[in-house]
Design goal:
The complex is a heterodimer. By secondary structure, chain A is mostly helical. Chain A contains 9 helices and no strands. The radius of gyration of chain A is 18 Å and the shape is globular. Chain B has a domain of 96 residues: Rossmann fold (3-Layer(aba) Sandwich), CATH 3.40.50. In chain B, a hairpin with a 2-residue loop joins strand 1 and strand 2. The longest helix of chain B is centred in the last third of the chain and has 16 residues. The chains are: A mainly alpha, B alpha/beta. Chains A and B meet through helix 1, helix 4 and helix 5 of A and helix 2, strand 6 and helix 3 of B.
């Protein structure tokens, strides 16, 4: 196993251990995700025909916002206690370590939402074909949101109140993901193929995996200097 | 490692904070087995200088050279031979001493550095604290954990920003011994401190 790969694994393990020691905070994005979705039947209408139409958008917007609010924690503690400085001085490429951090963050925030989504889909009486499409789009979409978001977090981590700025920076970049993902789920419910939308999301994911770590690493170096 | 070649060289280094010039056209070089102590009043630019040498902040003018090449051009090579200990220790408070060191050794260090974990803990006097979370340690003990990490990484160049902070008399002796041993093996050190460090002629001083 190469030294770079071992560093990647060690960092993922370290972040998962840290998340496990902060179990309480771990639940926050997930609870937010569930609460927002359950508010819609209460606030709009409990009629299942209407909920079925709204479900893709509601679940995806809730997932997107929950992801956005948990973004800030991605580099915050490492920036404050100097661990990020030490990472930047590691002989391994910072972009590789960034990828490890984004992956660990996804395991902790994105994956639980992915597991919870079918249940919420059922709440909103989404049919099985829709649930399948919802899971697929979330599987491709949530890491994509994390990767794109990491650039914004890296740029704002040095600011004392970067939260609002982060939202303004990142949210416009999330719009294409939202459009393709919700469209895919709606189309799947109508019984049509969704290959086109999935390929588009996958293309975006490949692009983000390839480019985002470098942009994030460069932004972190600026934030640290 | 040759004792006659300057490993670390600083050429025409300048640093400005807004309109204020912290230092201008600074030149020095260090060979293996030499240490440099940087002194100066608060705000004189000691930490800024260390951060520039470590490659974290780009200098406004001038170059830092490692083995004759600019550190920006050989970052991976330079980073593998350098250890930086700043005001922020970079330890995770929720993890134990050992977990911290294990993760850091793989992320930052050489391939076999984990073999020395027990020895290093012994050296800094924390053998019986290895399973405690860093959160419950005192400030001086945390400083010792950070020192242990530096030893694990096995760097040639040590960059230390006020390493004596929070340490007791024993800790100060410990750092002096570690520094002496490091220099004996041909290592280099650049540090800021107000303490006088008993390293004899191997220690050079720079007043900012």
């Amino acid at each position: 196993m190469s030294a770079g790969w071992r560093a990647f694994v060690a960092l993922v393990k370290r972040d998962l251990l840290l998340a496990f020691r902060h179990r309480g905070e771990l639940l926050n994005p997930l609870l937010f995700f569930m609460l927002v979705v359950t508010l819609f039947p209460l606030g709009v209408s409990p009629e299942s025909a209407l909920l079925r139409i709204m479900a893709p958008g509601v679940i995806w917007i809730a997932a997107l916002l929950a992801g956005l609010f948990s973004l800030e924690t991605m580099f915050r503690s490492d920036f404050d206690d100097g661990a990020l400085e030490q990472m930047a001085l590691s002989p391994h490429p910072l972009s590789l370590l960034v990828l490890a951090k984004v992956f660990a963050h996804w395991l902790v925030t994105g994956l639980p939402m992915l597991l919870m989504a079918p249940l919420l889909g059922l709440f909103l009486s989404l049919p099985a074909t829709g649930l399948y499409a919802l899971e697929l789009t979330l599987l491709i979409g949530t890491p994509l949101l994390g990767l794109v978001g990491s650039i914004g977090v890296a740029l704002t981590v040095g600011l004392r109140r970067g939260g609002v700025l982060l939202t303004l920076l990142v949210l416009p970049l999330y719009i294409p993901v939202l459009i393709f993902a919700t469209n895919a789920v709606s189309v799947a419910v109508a019984g049509l193929p969704i290959d086109g939308q999935l390929y588009f999301l996958l293309a975006l994911l490949v692009l983000a995996i390839t480019l985002a770590p470098f942009a994030t690493a460069a932004a972190l170096r600026i934030s640290l200097s | 490692m040759s004792e006659t070649v300057s490993l670390l060289q600083v050429r025409g280094l300048s640093c400005y904070r807004g309109e204020v010039c912290l230092f201008e056209n600074m030149e020095f070089s260090l060979r293996g087995g030499e240490a440099l102590q940087i002194e100066g009043a608060n705000g004189a630019g000691k930490t800024s200088l260390l951060r520039i040498i470590a490659g974290m902040t780009p200098p406004d003018e001038g170059d830092v050279l490692w083995c004759g090449g600019r550190i920006q051009d050989r970052r991976s090579d330079f980073n593998s031979q350098m250890a930086y200990l700043g005001h922020h220790l970079g330890l995770k408070y929720e993890l134990t001493v050992e977990e911290n060191l294990r993760a850091a050794a793989v992320i930052q260090g050489g391939a076999n550095s984990l073999d020395f974990l027990a020895d290093v803990l012994q050296q800094v006097g924390l053998s019986d604290r290895a399973d405690l979370p860093v959160r419950v340690l005192s400030a001086g003990q945390r400083q010792r954990v950070a020192l242990a990490r530096m030893l694990l990484i096995g760097a040639v160049l040590w960059i230390l920003d006020e390493p004596f902070t929070a340490l007791d008399a024993g800790g100060i002796v410990l750092i002096s011994e570690l520094l002496g041993y490091h220099l004996d093996r041909g290592g280099l050190a650049v540090m800021t401190s107000h303490q006088s460090i008993p390293l004899g002629s191997r220690l050079r001083r720079l007043i900012l």
